[in-house]
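Page 42, continued from yesterday. The earlier attempt failed because a stray header line got pasted into the input along with the sequence. Redoing it now with the clean sequence only.
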Amino acid sequence: MKKLIIFFIVCINQVVFGQGDLSVKNTYPTNYFNKPLDIPLILSGTFGELRSNHFHAGLDLKTQQREGLNVYAAAEGFVSRIKISLWGYGKAVYITHPNGYTTVYAHLKKFNKKIEDYIKKQQYKKESFEIQVFPSASEIPINKNELIAFSGATGGFVGPHLHFEIRDTKTEKPINPMFFGITVKDTKKPRINTLIGYSLSDNAHINNTNIPTTLSLRKLENGNLVTSKIQAFGKIGFGINAYDQLDGAYNKNGLYSLEMLVNGEKVHEFKATSFSFSETKYINLLIDYERFSTLNQRIQKCFIEPKNKLSLYNKAFRNGYLTIQDGFNYNVEIKAKDYKGNEQKIIIPIVGKKDSIVATQKIKETPYKINHQLFNKFTKKGITVAFPKYTFYNDFYLDFKVNDSFVKVHTPTLPLDRKYTLTFDVSNYTINEKGKLYIASINDKGKTNYEKTIKKETTFYTTTKKLGEFTLAKDTIAPKIKLHNFNNEQWLTNYNYLKVKITDNESGIATFRGEIDGEWILMEYNVKNGILSYNLNDKTFTTAKHHLKVIVTDNVGNSKTINATFFRKK
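This time it went through. Structure tokens are written below.
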């Protein structure tokens, strides 16, 4: 049987992935280290953490806030995918192993020479910095312990670290890497901060209200928590805000498991084991989405919404809903655990009491009622919203308002399952005016952000999963370009990199192109500082005088070009 193990050693100047002995059977293996770690592995992110609109698919390894640490292959295999993007995983390499697993290494600074040479050839062929390729099994073979890359901070506004994943090659489902024998020091219990009670039927209440209720917690000597006895009736549920911390790090990580028991019987269990990327959108049903959007606090529900198709739940148990009957007593326990088994528990004593509801949540009715099972389309003052079937998970009244070119499409407190279309009538604008207009969303600080705008003769539209405020914005200002680390007509013989700074404060940068002596050059864009950089060692210079040309275009087509001369010895 073919075998694979992954272990990590974090040293002063390198991150090492090595091989050992791991048998893969019907269940994921554990505890297969054949020697102790030299230095403890420190994580800044764990598998299954709750992120914005997705679950974290791997482990984030700390790299001492530095870039350029060595990254070694976990085991023998071949490079099956290379992706370079400005956002997301940044520079990432995927290695497929012969036993059915693929490892992923992301946010890299650069690759080893053979991978770097391969991908640069493809970038020059396509004339694009951003690229994705799928080499065949014979093109880039990888040995166990081979140096494959150097850690970095690519992929948007991220700090230096290494993102590491293990996926099932056939299904591409990420699997919790901790199952493969990776160990970290973790003696700390998870910490539960907030407990919310939910009334989930018309006649249900918790302490005489059917509005989501924050329940006070008292800490016991053993570290567990307990609430005062609550009175409730009908169909109810609970949710918590919690995090876990590992030894040696202050990062607030996600839970490995969340359980709820009623009178000793387990009725709900969530475990961060494995999931498919297609189901990650259901994270917005796992959490209290309205509370997250208004207070930026993630409450993880201990019950499963009917439309929630996540595979991270243990379906052998009930779905976490409690039906409280008058005159009965209940003892509820909620357990938050990390992978090491450390746990913190909440004890919730409940007495069933059918009583009048003093505080109730009012529904604001509008002329725009959404039937989530049907196609819904509304038009007002030249602005149209069109929602496909099942855009939303439930029926509700849409808050749809139009004032001049500003539109409010509800408040961003509801999760969407799919995109809808927002259309503006632009027939009253001139051709020149339309050329500079785009659809923009407006955040809670009043800042506009470009939304991909498809332009027709009389209408502009965008497809989005955002709710909130939008407008037609105008951008007549071209991007700015400035030489960064050299001056015009300067000798660059001893320079390794040529750098240019680019900015655009309106619709945003869409494309950039660099040329030297009329030939396209590979310029790498750092979105954090706006620097375009070119490795002068990529080109063989046969003459001393050279012409640089950089063209930057924004999202409405405004363009700026800079020309410069530099000198470099042969």
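Notes: The first helix runs from residue 113 to 126.
Reminder to self: strip header lines before submitting.
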